[in-house]
Specification:
7 helices, alpha+beta, 33% helix
């Protein structure tokens, strides 16, 4: 019987999160540039970030100035105020955060990116996974973070740990445990990966929605907004971004000609009174086209639908075409 090692599961999840979190960080970089270009204050931008963190699985956002001082963050201290933190290049004082200091030396608009495996962080010793990118408007660090907690995941049984637990074990260097444990529950693993991917894509949709709101407030033209959406598609795992009315008519696109929204029938399932999500199953149309995953997100009050599609590597556990090697 074909089996997967927990090491393979851990590696697959880490790769999946690297890609999706990179997309989130890049969209956040465009959001910050647009917001500051329109004159929004740090508190106003943090309020936008707070809403995204509250509505999605994203745990943290950190944005620095050119000196590495984080002046935009969703993380707060005991006094309720945004925590004070400066990224240092000293790996002894900051074993985790120092890795991202190099982004401050990247050329503006260079698409520099740093991904990091889950590990303990300096400020509170919790287990977090971070991905950071350079700024598109100035030298800065734009970082997103996800918490990985042992007590929240737990072991499912003696042969298979949840992917998040496995990733945490991998981060703490337990190769013997990972390489000696296997599971034949490939379909279940793929289902978990698919759910993780969907939630990460919803984060991207939330950030894009916030970016569009700022662009509208700033009076951007359709051409200017579309050019940014094209740039996001070009530099992230996202293959398509389509913005449509509730009737399904595409009004903005980062990848495709205008027309009707894909999965138009899914609009019937959207609850227009709340932020709602339609999670479309991963598909593999034929041998000549890659597998893909799409999510559709509705934003109440804005009568706007954001639909995001990402292509899936068939060697990835999340692809419906994935087969265990050997």
């Amino acid at each position: 019987m074909s089996q997967l090692s927990l090491a393979d599961i851990a590696k697959g999840l880490d790769s999946l999160l690297d890609e999706q979190m990179t997309g989130q960080a890049r969209i956040a970089a465009h959001l910050v540039a647009a917001a500051e270009g329109h004159g929004l204050s740090p508190s106003e931008i943090i309020a936008i970030f707070d809403k995204i963190v509250k509505k999605t699985v994203l745990d943290e956002l950190w944005v620095t100035d050119s000196e590495g001082i984080a002046y935009l963050t969703t993380v707060r201290g005991e006094d309720g105020q945004p925590i004070q933190f400066k990224f240092s290049e000293d790996s002894e004082s900051q074993p985790q955060a120092s890795a991202f200091h190099a982004l401050l030396s990247a050329e503006i608009d260079s698409d520099a990116c740093i991904t990091q495996a889950a590990q303990t962080r300096e400020i509170d010793w919790n287990i977090f996974k971070y991905v950071g990118v350079s700024g598109i408007d100035k030298r800065r660090i734009v970082q997103v973070g996800n918490a990985l907690a042992f007590e929240e995941q737990g072991l499912l049984d003696n042969s298979y740990a949840s992917p998040v637990m496995t990733a945490a074990l991998a981060a703490f260097g337990e190769p013997e445990l990972l390489s000696s444990s296997y599971t034949s529950r490939v379909a279940e693993v793929r289902s978990v990966f698919d759910a993780v991917l969907s939630k990460q894509m919803v984060v991207q949709a939330g950030l894009i929605d916030a970016f569009l709101s700022v662009a509208e407030r700033a009076g951007w033209s359709v051409a200017k907004t579309n050019s940014r959406l094209h740039r996001i598609v070009k530099t992230t795992p996202i293959s398509e971004i389509e913005i449509a009315t509730t009737g399904g008519q595409i009004v903005l696109s980062g990848s495709a000609p205008y027309g009707k929204l894909r999965y138009l029938e899914s609009l019937q399932a959207i609850n227009v009174d709340v932020m709602d999500v339609v999670d479309h199953p991963s598909t593999a149309h034929d041998e000549n086209h890659p597998s893909e995953k799409t999510v559709t997100v509705y934003s109440p009050g804005l009568t706007r639908i954001v639909q995001i599609t990402t292509l899936l590597d068939d060697n990835s556990l999340v692809s419906p075409r994935f087969k265990i090697p050997g």
